[in-house]
Specification:
The chain is an alpha/beta fold and 481 residues long. It has two domains: 4-91, Cytochrome b5-like heme/steroid binding domain (Flavocytochrome B2, Chain A, domain 1); 146-281 and 316-480, Aldolase class I (TIM Barrel, Alpha-Beta Barrel), CATH 3.20.20.70. The chain contains 19 helices and 18 strands. It has helices spanning 17-21, 52-56, 63-67, 101-111, 122-132, 135-142, 149-156, 205-215, 229-235, 252-265, 283-289, 308-312, 324-329, 344-353, 375-385, 387-392, 404-413, 422-431, 433-454; strands at residues 30-33, 36-39, 83-86, 161-163, 178-180, 183-185, 189-191, 218-221, 242-246, 269-273, 292-295, 301-304, 336-341, 358-361, 395-398, 417-420, 467-470, 478-480. The protein has an eight-stranded parallel beta barrel with strand order 7-8-9-10-13-14-15-16, surrounded by six helices. Helix 17 links the parallel strand 15 and strand 16. It comes from Russula earlei. This is FMN-dependent dehydrogenase-domain-containing protein.
């Protein structure tokens, strides 16, 4: 963050709050963040979230809104001239107000929270998270596209696969150890990259990194993480593996700079996300975000309600394409995974033509195109039509996972690992690092129990013959894979 030492002497004097309030125009726009006044006029043409948030907090204290979304070093990209100076604390109006209805609701919900060990399922964690999160945070985490048909289908798809348990096998000793993308993991799951963990807890993604390190599982770090790379790497264990989720920037020079530095930063692989070239219509997020008023490009004042997703995704390039894959390959030696494959044809192209190191079958948690297929549906099609792809390549899935049995079903069909995103955002929001640990423990308990009841002791025994597809419309007809 820009500090007084990084500015010229003439810019170090105190700034009065009255002076701050005078700078609210396109020609001079100042904001107050953590006791420091910044000139953010230069961001009006490049701010990822558009000009709305800038005008909303013009001439005001933007600290609370800033820290919940941005990494703490986000202001380092501003020129030194943007540092105006520290605010004069004597001039800042003292506002004493009663807690809002939402603050009272959250405080009451937090006071009633049970101990993490008493929670038995991810669904229970989700219900508790809704109570302790602000409306804005819950709306961003939970929101899905359009009528949320795909969101529901992601979960429903797992119910169409039933086990074929085998009995009279010795199952006292079970191992869940796995190798994912060449990296060891104590479980066949990974923390899927999900943005803005600080909306739920001040330590944000650092809590997830700590829990993943303690548990020995892999984690994806979002391109839109609310913690900086420095913060994340400061809590990473020496042999812990982190995967960087990459969104292609409209400015390729910025993407190139990021990609070239990932290996030195400490990341073990890159996960290029391709299922969200543009933000989906997430109405829960859009409605909860509320309106702002500020000058539009034509100089008129207009209102806008975009939501958090639109606010953080303005830099993403809708023209990301297959040709970007070899370009990235030339920039780094890190393994490259394509996240967001939604049909067999693209799976074949990614693995056989572009020879990426792995793919993730994903529809972005149902947050993008409604009526896009559930990852389990695509995985099932691959098992039927191109089982060789699953046997020879690293195919992962995410979306809709709420139980350890969901993980086992995906592994039976040929997935190498299963990602969970929202579940860890929810757990982090409730209990921080210990919440994330409890989420991992629940998955471990359910996976181990499911393996024993299924009659297997090693993940390699989870083969297609261990599950059957059940047509809910005709429950009497079952076809073995």
């Amino acid at each position: 963050m820009i500090t007084p030492g990084g500015a010229s002497d003439e810019l170090k004097s105190y700034v009065t709050y009255a002076e701050l309030q005078h700078h609210t125009s396109r020609s001079s726009l100042w904001v107050l963040i953590s006791g420091i006044v910044y000139d953010v006029t230069s961001l009006l043409s490049s701010h990822p979230g558009g000009i709305g948030p800038l005008f909303k907090y013009a001439g005001k204290d933007a600290t609370r809104a800033f820290v919940s979304i941005h990494p703490r070093d986000a202001l380092d990209t501003l020129p030194h001239s943007a540092y105006i100076g520290p605010i004069d604390p004597i001039t800042v109006p003292q506002i004493f107000s009663e807690p809002t209805a939402e603050e009272n609701r959250i405080a009451k919900a937090r006071a009633a929270l049970p101990h993490p060990r008493s929670v038995l399922s991810l669904s229970e964690i989700e219900r508790l998270a809704k109570g302790v999160l602000s409306k804005k945070a819950w709306a961003y985490y939970r929101s899905a596209g359009d009528d949320e048909i795909t969101f529901s289908e992601n979960r429903e798809s797992f119910t169409r696969f039933w086990f074929c348990p085998r009995v009279l096998n010795k199952v006292s000793n079970v191992t869940t150890a796995s190798t994912i993308l060449g990296m060891p993991s104590s479980l066949p799951i990974f923390i899927a990259p999900a943005a803005l963990a600080r909306l739920g807890h001040p330590d944000g993604e650092m809590n997830l990194v700590r829990a993943a390190g303690r548990s020995g599982i892999l984690q994806g770090i979002s391109n839109n993480a609310s913690c900086s790379v420095i913060e994340i790497m400061s809590v990473k264990r020496p042999k812990q593996h982190l995967i960087f989720q990459l969104y292609m920037n409209k400015d390729r020079t910025k993407t190139e700079k990021v990609v070239r530095g990932l290996q030195n930063d400490g990341f073990s692989a890159i996960m290029l996300t391709v299922d969200a070239a543009v933000p989906g219509k997430r109405e829960l997020d859009q409605r909860t975000q509320g309106e702002w008023e500020g000058p539009a490009a034509n100089g008129k004042v207009e209102s806008e309600s975009k939501g958090v997703a639109h606010s953080i995704g303005g830099y993403q390039d809708p023209d990301v394409c297959w040709n970007d894959i070899p370009w990235i390959r030339n920039l780094t030696k890190l393994p490259l995974v394509i996240k967001g494959i939604q049909c067999l044809e693209d799976a074949e192209r990614a693995l056989e033509v572009y020879k990426v190191d792995g793919i993730v079958l994903s529809n972005h948690g149902g947050r993008e195109l409604d009526y896009s297929p559930a990852p389990m549906t695509v995985l099932y099609e691959m098992r039927q039509v191109r089982p060789d792809l699953l046997d020879r390549h690293q195919v992962l899935i995410d979306g809709g996972v709420t139980r350890g049995t969901d993980v086992l079903k995906a592994l039976c069909l040929g997935a190498r690992a299963v990602g969970l995103g929202r579940a860890f955002l929810y757990a982090n929001s409730i209990w921080g690092e210990e919440g994330c640990m409890r989420g991992i423990e629940i998955m471990r308990e359910e996976i181990e129990l499911g393996m024993r009841l299924l009659g297997v002791t090693r993940l390699e025994e989870l083969r297609p013959e261990r599950v059957r597809f059940v047509d809910h419309a005709r429950l009497g007809l079952r076809s073995r894979l």
